[in-house]
UniProtKB/TrEMBL annotation:
It comes from Serratia fonticola. It catalyses: N-terminal L-lysyl-[protein] + L-leucyl-tRNA(Leu) = N-terminal L-leucyl-L-lysyl-[protein] + tRNA(Leu) + H(+); N-terminal L-arginyl-[protein] + L-leucyl-tRNA(Leu) = N-terminal L-leucyl-L-arginyl-[protein] + tRNA(Leu) + H(+); L-phenylalanyl-tRNA(Phe) + an N-terminal L-alpha-aminoacyl-[protein] = an N-terminal L-phenylalanyl-L-alpha-aminoacyl-[protein] + tRNA(Phe). It is an enzyme of class 2 (transferase). Its EC number is 2.3.2.6. It comes from the Bacteria. Belongs to the L/F-transferase family. The gene is aat. The keyword Chaperone does not apply. This is Leucyl/phenylalanyl-tRNA--protein transferase. SUPFAM superfamilies: Acyl-CoA N-acyltransferases (Nat). It is found in: Cytoplasm. Coiled coil: none annotated. Functions in the N-end rule pathway of protein degradation where it conjugates Leu, Phe and, less efficiently, Met from aminoacyl-tRNAs to the N-termini of proteins containing an N-terminal arginine or lysine. One of its GO terms (biological process) is protein catabolic process. HAMAP family: Leu_Phe_trans (MF_00688).
Amino acid sequence: MRIVKLSSQSVAFPSPETALHDPNGLLAIGGDLTPARLLAAYERGIFPWYSPGEAILWWSPDPRAVLFPAQFHVSRSLKRFLRNPPFRITLNHDFAAVIAACSYRPDEGTWIGEEVQQAYLQLHHLGHAHSIEVWQGEELVGGLYGVAQGRCSAVNQCLAALPTHQSVLYGRFAAILPVMEENWLTVRCLTLTLPGLEREKFPAANFCSS
């Protein structure tokens, strides 16, 4: 099966069912990161993932890792921690700082180059991408960002200095989703483990039709 090269004249994508099995989910190459194309992609369960300086690659892996916020369980230890947390949490306070911090991976490289940062910042300004920040004083010590589209919110990256921060971040994101009329989260990594929020494997066909 051949990878489809996207047209610059259209934001249409091939069916996710045509994605490669190896590497899992590789669907198309090329195109751009305009808001229209990104939203068209996320609407069908497709996302960009590539190294800076290389051609844009579009993915729709099967199965998908899905988290259901309604199932989020706050443990007693986390409840105690949240009664007097040593940090404050904000929503959409500094999206640019969060995505820039998430891109900093000196030992392993990153796919979040300047082009990607600017593209998601545009989505944020249009109201489609959101961030949650964790602050200790004036220092950003944790955060995540994601794209809300339809009933699903795609969490793209998480910056967490401590495991507790990660639980708080996803828990906070889960808490605001009903307000945003979102029902579930999808994450890139099938191996993600998070206390209080179990991941489930969702067949790509069901994912794209939900």
